[in-house]
Every structure is written in C-alpha cells, then in structure tokens.
Amino acid sequence: MSAYVVSKETIDRIVTFCDSKGAEHFWSYYPEIHKVFAGDCNKLGQKMLVMNNKAVDARYSENNPIEIYRFSLVCTSIMQVYKSLQCFLYQCSEGDIPKSGLYQDLKKLEHDIAHDIISSTTEYGMAQWG
Question: Long-range contacts made by residues 23-32, C-beta under 8 angstroms, separation at least 24?
C-alpha cells in the first residue's frame, strides 16, 4: 500500500462537518474528536494533519516536517464528507495511528455517516423490515 498526505481541502471538509455538529449529544458519541476539537477547528485539523504525516512517515521510514494547518470553511455534501473521511482514514492506516483514540472515533464517524446515507435512501425506506 502507498500512503500520502491528503489535501488541506480533504481535512477542511471533515473539520467543517464536525464543526457543524454543535449538539452535545453528537460529541458524546465521539469523545476523542471532542477532546481534540474543543471548539477549535484549527486544533482538530492540525491534529489530523499530524496523524496523516506520522502514518506516511511510518510507511516510508521518514521524518517529514509538518505544516501549520489553518482551517477554511467549505461547502460540501454529506457524500463528499464521507468519501473524504474514507480517504483520510486509509492514508492514516500505517504504524500505530489506527490504535489512537482519534483515529478510532473518526472510524466510528465514518461508519455512522455511511449508516445515515444508506438510511436516507428511498430504496432503504421501501425495503421490508423483518
């Protein structure tokens, strides 16, 4: 598997989505994201960028410098957030990164977004229960 540092826009999409979920019940499902985020989009994005860099460094036995992340609000669809999250997690699946609490919470978020997308389709609504 190859690994690379995702684009800033990929992280912006995920952080924008998390920032839009201000309700406390949302954060109770993702305590590690909430702990890192704490209302600071730059902090969450920077932590995600560091995770991604560490995964790439682990893959290629490197020690690359990490840029400073500055959040930009982006307009995006839930489908784009889902695909960006999938890409990000895949690029972070090296070394010990998948064992981290933040990675685990983002993986759970990926699963929950997929569930919400599928559950909102007409086909799902028309499928038989039981």
Answer: 29/108, 29/112, 30/105, 30/108, 30/109, 31/101, 31/105, 32/100, 32/101, 32/102, 32/104, 32/105
Tens-place pLDDT, residues 83-119? 999 999 999 999 999 999 999 999 999 999 999 999 9
- Domain spans, the chain: 8-122
Dihedral sign, Cα of residue 67, residue 70, residue 71, residue 75: negative
Q: What's CA 52's distance to the chain center, in Å?
A: 11
Tokens of 51: 């995770």
What is the mean predicted confidence (pLDDT) over 42-58?
98
For residues 113, 83, 101, 58, the Cα torsion angle rounded to the nearest 10 degrees is 170
